[in-house]
């Protein structure tokens, strides 16, 4: 998610947007654009201890520093009454929704359509968060999505938590963000209006309005300024910043682990619902961030409510089938990782094929039992058998298939899996009809495979070898 910097740079562009901005900025970029930029456009010199102070974005640094200092001073010198506290929280959500429902989901991702009254409300509310104009903010955020975790990502999370959180605004970037088209926003009347009047709007919505409401409402002018104005602004800043940092660091990759975005309820709580970020990066045009009813996403509920009263329409939702594919992909990957950490029965194709006569001869030297056509060395298990050693001892050198498969006891999945680990050979012609499925251990009847593994297994067994591996 985009943030503050450089807020006042967008103020300087207070004139109507030029007509050329209506043309897609990425119309003629090469197919290998990222590699081309990294090869042909040199970044600014690296930051060192001797030049870091020259690389600071002084305007943004001043705005952030003053806002925090004013808030801290107010906390220690101005008492907070419950009315002002309630108004500060309410205005935090109003201006926060201006960013999440407006800047982010409406204009950056076009996840729904909003009526003109709702657009003007969200534009003014978002201005109260003082994070740049809609056009500037969305240009950076679209670049973030297109070039996630690359050098062209304006708040690349791979550069560290604090860089993604606030560093990218405090220090001048080493290279420009990648090209992102905002020609659609250049044609939007509300976006153009806000861009033109941005400076008076941030003063009015950021500080004047919250102060006036508390002052005229219950006579708390100072509290309105310091708490509903400055302190509330600090909270909105860091709420937004957390979508760049915390949402790329805390949680799990529920749909794709290719990039850094993660899903976590804590991030959702501090970002007004934008914390299910792995989902969002997979399905950016979905108006939701959280897809389950119990997940915290007040922005989703706000947009849905606006649709109910006719202020919003065409709420975009990705097909549930595609969402579940993403979830299944990660579930299968986790299962694959678990599967590869386990030891399974020896490969059938690697076991020697033994004649009945050879099996009986070798069973006189060590405890061998035939079950389902496989020869098993049960020496390590005889004293551990729940039914007693004698039930195994009497079947040494014999075929105990019937007894194992329900004749004496219908053994559990665990017993089947454990028995398969004792396989040391295959009895020539010894597999009974109808046991093909049962001869596969339950743990191996369903297997997670990479696509290149299909067809790699051979069905042929070794030729008869008069010996059994121990």
From TrEMBL:
Cofactor dependency: Fe(2+)
UniProt keyword list: Electron transport, Fatty acid biosynthesis, Fatty acid metabolism, Heme, Iron, Lipid biosynthesis, Lipid metabolism, Membrane, Metal-binding, Oxidoreductase, Transmembrane, Transmembrane helix, Transport
Database matches in InterPro entries: Acyl-CoA_deSatase_haem/ster-bd, Acyl-CoA_DS, Cyt_B5-like_heme/steroid-bd, Cyt_B5-like_heme/steroid_sf, Cyt_B5_heme-BS, FA_desaturase_dom
Cytochrome b5 heme-binding domain ranges (all copies): 369-428
Superkingdom field: Eukaryota
GO cellular component terms listed in the entry, alphabetical order: endoplasmic reticulum membrane
Location of this chain's protein in the cell: Membrane
GO molecular function, one term: iron ion binding
EC numbers for this chain: 1.14.19.1
Cofactor remark from the record: Expected to bind 2 Fe(2+) ions per subunit.
Reaction catalyzed: octadecanoyl-CoA + 2 Fe(II)-[cytochrome b5] + O2 + 2 H(+) = (9Z)-octadecenoyl-CoA + 2 Fe(III)-[cytochrome b5] + 2 H2O
Transmembrane segments: 59-82, 89-106, 118-138, 197-219
Top enzyme class: oxidoreductase
One example of a Gene Ontology biological process annotation: unsaturated fatty acid biosynthetic process
Topology term for the membrane: Multi-pass membrane protein
PROSITE patterns reported for this sequence: CYTOCHROME_B5_1, CYTOCHROME_B5_2
Function: Stearoyl-CoA desaturase that utilizes O(2) and electrons from reduced cytochrome b5 to introduce the first double bond into saturated fatty acyl-CoA substrates.
The family this protein is said to belong to: Belongs to the fatty acid desaturase type 1 family.
PANTHER family given in the database record: ACYL-COA DESATURASE (PTHR11351), DESATURASE 1, ISOFORM A-RELATED (PTHR11351:SF31)
Name the UniProt record assigns to this protein: Acyl-CoA desaturase
Organism: Fibroporia radiculosa
């Amino acid at each position: 998610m985009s943030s503050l910097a450089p807020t006042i740079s967008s103020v300087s562009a207070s004139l109507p947007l030029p007509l050329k901005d209506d043309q897609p900025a990425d119309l003629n970029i090469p197919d290998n654009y990222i590699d081309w930029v990294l090869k042909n456009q040199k970044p600014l010199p690296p930051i060192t201890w001797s030049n870091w102070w020259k690389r600071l974005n002084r305007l943004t640094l001043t705005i952030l520093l003053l806002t925090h200092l004013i808030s801290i001073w107010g906390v220690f010198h101005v008492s907070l009454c419950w009315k002002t506290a309630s108004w500060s929280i309410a205005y935090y959500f109003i201006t926060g929704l201006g960013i999440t429902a407006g800047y982010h989901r409406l204009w950056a991702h076009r996840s729904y359509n909003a009526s003109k009254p709702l657009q003007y409300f969200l534009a003014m509310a978002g201005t109260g968060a003082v994070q740049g104009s809609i056009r500037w903010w969305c240009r950076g955020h679209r670049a973030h999505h297109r070039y996630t975790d690359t050098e062209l990502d304006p708040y690349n999370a791979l550069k560290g938590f604090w860089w993604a959180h606030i560093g990218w605004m405090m220090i001048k970037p080493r290279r420009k963000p990648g090209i992102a088209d905002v020609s659609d926003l250049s044609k939007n009347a509300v976006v153009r209006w806000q861009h033109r009047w941005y400076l008076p709007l941030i003063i009015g919505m950021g500080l004047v309005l919250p102060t006036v409401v508390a002052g005229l409402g219950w006579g708390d002018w100072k509290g309105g300024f310091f708490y509903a104005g400055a302190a509330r602004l600090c909270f909105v800043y860091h709420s937004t910043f957390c979508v760049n940092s915390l949402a790329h660091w805390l949680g799990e990759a529920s749909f794709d682990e290719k990039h850094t975005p993660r899903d976590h309820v804590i991030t959702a709580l501090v970002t007004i619902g934008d914390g299910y970020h792995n989902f969002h990066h997979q399905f950016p045009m979905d108006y939701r961030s959280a897809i389950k009813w119990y997940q915290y996403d007040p922005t989703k509920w706000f947009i849905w409510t606006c649709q109910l009263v006719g202020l919003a329409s065409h709420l975009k939702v990705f097909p549930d089938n595609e969402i579940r594919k993403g979830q299944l992909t990660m579930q299968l990957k986790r299962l694959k990782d678990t599967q590869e950490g386990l030891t399974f029965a020896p490969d059938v194709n690697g076991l020697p094929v033994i004649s009945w006569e050879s099996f009986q001869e070798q069973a006189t030297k060590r405890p061998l039992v035939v079950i389902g056509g496989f020869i098993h060395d049960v020496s390590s298990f005889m004293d551990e058998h729940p039914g007693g050693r004698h039930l195994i001892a009497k079947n040494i050198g014999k075929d105990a298939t019937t007894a194992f498969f329900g004749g004496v006891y219908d053994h559990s999945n665990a017993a089947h899996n454990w028995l398969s680990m004792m396989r040391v050979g295959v009895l020539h012609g010894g597999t009974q009809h109808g046991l093909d499925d049962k001869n596969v251990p339950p743990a191996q009847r369903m297997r997670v495979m990479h696509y290149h593994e299909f067809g790699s297994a051979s069905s042929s067994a070794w030729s008869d070898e008069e010996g059994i591996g121990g």
